[in-house]
Amino acid sequence: ILYDLLVLIYGYYFSKSKLPKSNIITTFDDLFNRFNKIAGMKHDFQVENDKDVGDFFESLLNKGIDNLQLPDLSEIETEIKTSSGKKKTTAFTKSPDDGYSVRQLVDRFGYEDKDGKLNKNNQIAKRLMVSVTGKPNNRGFYLDIQNDRLYLINKEEKLCSWRLDILMESFAGKMPNLAYVNYTKDKNGITFNTLTLYKNVQKIALIDMIKNGEVVVELRARHGFKDKNESYIRDRGTAFRLTNSNSHMLDLAFFQ
Question: Whole-model pTM above 0.85?
Fold first, then answer.
């Protein structure tokens, strides 16, 4: 509901100040010029996460809110990511293509809802919200690359996997170029500070980033709650996320 309200507010506000078609961003210079007009000044907008800041920033660029899998700024094939430098940034989402489904993972490995809410089967709902790297976490999950696949493993049991070529294509398809925007926030609003443009992704670099722990896999799913009439599984998507060592990692992943 809150997200839908934000969408309506953005749509009303920016419909009053639409830019002419001649100002559509079609080159990297257009992007920098537009950024320079909104950078360095305080914007009265209170948010709690990078996603909301990204939506607001793209609205300032006269873009519609976009949560699709296709790249932003399609004319220059550029994805925008905003960060305060303290959190991970989602590169793309991809469900496993072999082995356990997300539903099966939640059923078997999920932990019970602390409030005791029930799922559709009148059982205590479970959730599975974990970050996974090449080192076992406190729940025994870890990643391992073997031949042409990335495996999710729990205590030496292979649970599910992804084809590496599909992951690399997803990475390159989502962000063939990346505009990385740094911002700061305080009680008075947010300020956009810098925009760094990374061009021409090297999709093969994804493999090394996973091995080095610079990309983590996050499972983000739970049982739906019966009292809210939700579907059996609520899945936010299995996310491949860039760690907060973004600058070093992005230098490896892109030709600047």
Answer: no
